[in-house]
Specification:
The protein is mostly helical and about 240 residues long. The protein is built from nine helices and no strands. The longest helix has about 55 residues.
Amino acid sequence: MNLSLASTALIRVATRTLPFAAVALLLTSSAFAQAGEDSSSALDVFTKSGAIGILIIVLSIVALAVVIENTVTLKRDKLAPPELIDEVQALFDEGQYQEAMELCENEPCFFTRVAGAGITKIGHSFEVIEQSISEMGDEESIRLHQKIGWLSLIANVAPMMGLLGTVGGMIKAFNTIASSGGQANPADLALGISEALLTTMLGLVVAIPVTASFAFLRNRLVKTVIEVGAIVEDLFERFRPTAA
């Protein structure tokens, strides 16, 4: 049974990350096709891109790991398990607020942290409860957004590293011209120019799908935070004073 659940989860993750992997593969294949007919393999392209190109490739691996990790941990069922919501609601209906607090402490997640902040203020005015829920919701939302913020950082750093490689490659090409007294053979300039263009290509190949992944995860997280916030507000609505 556990193996079946693990397989199902893996399939769901692969399905959600497949569009971004496909975009990256398409961009990479197209870029490699333009890299030159003399490039016999992707390894040749990576080698000719120099140290900056290799760093960009390492950055792409880190980005893929972050995308997969966030895809798994920031799902709605992870942030607010439906069974936990049902249990807390049942305890609230029975007036067992201490038991609900213990459940929230034993099952930490986005929903239980926000709900737990409200439970601790039961007995105070509804405004105090509402403020406590709002503050904890904002704090947890910021913490979750910081996790996907790494993707935004990578998406911005990758093309900048590509630009750095471009500048380095052009410097090599001009140094070759200078050392030859302006009589450099075009073949002698090819290495520096090739490195310049390849690093630019690699930076964009990493940045484009990572940017798309960041936008997808951010929008999904915002939607989940709003939905969970509405659930918690509805849970504590019973403590709102009725109009006279």
